[in-house]
Design the sequence.
């Protein structure tokens, strides 16, 4: 005779697998947006530096602000990466 938990277990495992897949996809999209934003800020800072070097209108404040935004966003991205790497390593060491 088949036990009830034997028929439910595959359905639960499949549902958990789908939830994990959705979570990973959502996290991937979030990181993709973060990378795009950091890249955009880096390009903006590069344009400001180029304008400052070639233009007669010297916008020192705008250039410095754009550079600081780009730097801070890059630092944040690196910190997030570091925390995720640490968390992944900790999880991979766990015994099931």
Sequence:
């Amino acid at each position: 005779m088949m036990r009830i938990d034997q028929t439910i277990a595959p359905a639960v495992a499949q549902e958990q697998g789908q939830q994990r897949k959705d979570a990973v996809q959502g996290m991937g999209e979030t990181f993709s947006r973060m990378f795009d934003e950091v890249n955009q800020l880096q390009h903006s800072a590069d344009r400001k530096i180029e304008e400052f070097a070639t233009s007669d209108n010297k916008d020192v404040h705008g250039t410095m602000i754009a550079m600081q935004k780009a730097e801070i966003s890059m630092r944040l991205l690196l910190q997030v990466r570091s925390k995720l790497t640490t968390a992944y390593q900790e999880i991979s060491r766990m015994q099931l």
